[in-house]
Amino acid sequence: MAAASEALKLFLALARYAGNSGVRLNETSCRYQVVMNEVLLESVQHYNSLEDAWGSATKNANGDYVYTGLELLLDATRHGNSAYYGYVKDDGCYSFNAVKKGYRLAVHPYEYNTEEIRAKYLEQLQMIGLKLGKNCQVSLEVKPYYAGNYFQLQLMAGGEVILISGQQYTSAANAERAQDDWLFEVLSLLWKDSNYSLNATANRFELLNGSAVSGYFKPSGDAVLSADDLKEWKTKMQQSALYYPVRRVKTAFGYTYSFRLYHDDFIPEEPVPDENSGCACDAPPPVRKPGAIIWESAEQYECLNAAIRGFYRFCTALSIPGNYKPSLGEGCGPFGIELVDSSYVLAANPQCYATLPAMEDAIDRTAAAINDEGMHVVEHILLRPRVDDDCQCLLPVKPEPLCQLPWEEEVVGYDVDPEDAVFKTTVVPFTDPYSFVATIVLPGWPVRFRNTSTRAMMENLLRKEAPAHVLLNILWLRPRSFCEFETLYRRWLQHLACKPVCGDDAHIQCCLICYLFGQTGIMDAVPDTDTDPDCQQITPSCFDDNRQNRLPESDFGDWINRLFRKSCDMQEIDCLSNETTPPPGRILADKRNSAPATTSPQLAAATSPQLVEDPASPAAATHRSNSPEDVLLRDRKGRQRISKYKQQILPVDADNIVDTEAYDRTGKFMEAGPLNMHKYSTLADFLLKNMPAGKKAAASEQALLLRNATWLCLDQLLLRVPVSIAAHEKKQLQQTLRKMKDKGINLAALAKDWKPEDLVSDENEDLVAQCLRWMK
């Protein structure tokens, strides 16, 4: 009874948010169902296309991954429950956000008895933050300098030298390595009066570490220094150290760094337990922390540079009132305050939970859903052709001639000639891609599967547990690829079981083969160790095997994967259009027919994408408007055309291109997302440079790549929301088209084969006419 009551409460809470309800296509009955889901997260950013929302992962100049869209959220969740930040909404219920690492910047070190007292101090902190803003800075800096035959370190405050190291270094590199140690040695010595000394012989101030001189300072001029001068210098040094924000703590694994902010005007109120509150919880009384430290960093950093960078982020956040958040806790207190970076919010939970435990359960459900692990096994023998249509998408045959295995088998029978009693042959791997081969499909984003070592361990375990005669092809798929694969895989299983399948089931097997071996996106693993870009040092991993190269299991798996994917040149069939789920509360009428399949890869490469519509279809008659249905249809057609362009360059033999980089650069351009005219013109210049002159140009491999890249560029221009083309983009496009014409490419044929009718709307028809005029 209690469980049913809780389930009813959850259902009623979900019913309050319209986004939880939707429409889903039942793949067996081919009817639509109204469903109620729990939307756990919604992105705070709005995207221009489905590709942008799914996101991507690219490497920057430093070799670090840069994530976008959904993949950015999945990368953030690698850091566990610290990726989720709970808060109280205005109406008193609880919810949470998904945030990037570093969202929590600092914690106020004082806790208060009541929410009213906390609100008063929160407002005071906001006023202090507005005054400080971006003006807070790191007061001390250490720099090496050349002192003749050796190097020394200088401690500077506000650009002025206040201390010079007593130790001398033989090289600048040695001095730089000693910077952090000397700085924190000095900071630890400044608070003890006996460490200050006046060297009358050298007429200078000295800071002692026992009997050794840690640092010294000699003021300019010839005046003889006195004890009063020493006292004044000591006060100046201690004042500088008081405002220095970074602190260092020694641990079993080295040092950790943090920052804090001291402020003179803040006077904390001594918190005492409220005996009259009637609170029955056993929360301990708040602990008074000494000094006027108003903020302490919420994160421990690996090095000084990272801590300073975090401090400057903290300074920027101080001037934004919305970054001050009351920390979550029990209703009876104590009540704390935190400072966050609101720009680090990736997604928000739209629900409203009545209690803190209910919100925490929702966070657990979110983490479990993101890191849900599982796998699919596709036995290649089940992909063998069963009908004539299946013969147009056979699995790639790629024999390995360097690996020929002798095979002997005894022939049993009464009438067997003794000379033929043993049958001898040679087995060549991959001559038969169907027998004794299986493909394992795994999600590449769960936390346990993100790094190279655990993936290699998983692959090794799968191969050990599989029968010895079965070869495994293991794929770690990106989120979008995994989702689309599962759609095709479910339809294929329905088809094998002779159960009804929605839509055209003539090419179900071809759809699965073509997608699995030709279009799936592989999700790269992250390194076994996390490298902080500010630190130039590595945080050890419990899986680190101290080997420089990748594990042999991973190399073998990559080789098998490339072997199957490289030869996947089957013609693409429009497989997913009938599986597109309508938006909640609306069912779209889409009576489109797929284009006739071409008969050869050469013919597929020579023609532009054609999407045939039923003239009587409402979509064909009204697709020019800007209604949600027509915008969705045009976007869907645009995605289909992009897939066609990618498929049309598959017959290109990259090894025969003059510059083998051309094929790779064209593929990257097609995967790059929203249109960047500069990237297109750069790619076109590269292809034109390596294109043969005269009549051979139009038939070259580079021309095929350039035609498909140009069609893609024009399509993306038409699908922009709102429709626009900047003056510099227009100039770049016209210049590129002129260069193509000068090289011998027939622009009229290019325009004729483009066929933009599928993408024309009332808003972009003028732009279509412009583009066609440029290609005359």
From the N-terminal CA to the C-terminal CA, the straight-line distance is 75 Å
Mean pLDDT score: 79
Strand content: 15-25%
Largest sheet: number of strands, sense, barrel closure: 6 strands, antiparallel
Spans of at least 5 consecutive residues with low confidence: 271-290, 538-551, 566-572, 578-623
Which percent range fits the helix content? 25-40%
Kindly name the structural category.
Answer: alpha+beta
Topology, number of strands: 27
Reading side by side through the largest sheet, how are the strands ordered? 15-16-17-8-19-18
What is the general shape? Answer: globular
Contiguous helical run count: 22
Radius of gyration: 34 Å
Word description of this protein:
With 776 residues, the chain is α+β, with helices and mostly antiparallel strands. Helices cover 35% and strands 18% of the residues. It is built from 22 helices and 27 strands. Strand 9 (140-146) and strand 10 (151-157) form a beta hairpin. Helix 17 packs parallel to helix 19 and helix 18 runs antiparallel to helix 19 (701-718).
Task: Give a brief description.
The protein has 776 residues and is an alpha+beta fold. The chain is 35% helix and 18% strand.
What is the strand and helix layout of this fold?
Layout: H1 2-15, E1 21-25, E2 32-36, E3 42-43, H2 50-54, E4 57-59, E5 65-67, H3 69-76, E6 84-88, E7 94-99, E8 104-107, H4 115-132, E9 140-146, E10 151-157, E11 160-165, H5 172-177, H6 179-189, E12 196-199, E13 204-209, E14 212-217, H7 227-243, E15 246-251, E16 254-262, E17 293-297, H8 304-318, E18 324-326, E19 337-340, E20 345-348, H9 356-370, E21 376-379, E22 405-410, E23 422-427, E24 437-443, H10 452-465, E25 471-477, H11 479-496, H12 508-518, E26 530-532, E27 537-539, H13 552-566, H14 601-606, H15 618-622, H16 628-648, H17 661-670, H18 677-689, H19 701-718, H20 727-742, H21 747-754, H22 765-774
Parallel strand pairs: 24-25
Antiparallel strand pairs: 1-2, 3-20, 4-5, 6-7, 7-20, 8-17, 8-19, 9-10, 10-11, 11-14, 12-13, 13-14, 15-16, 16-17, 18-19, 21-24, 22-23, 26-27
Helix pairs in contact: 10-13, 11-12, 16-19, 17-18, 17-19, 18-19, 18-20
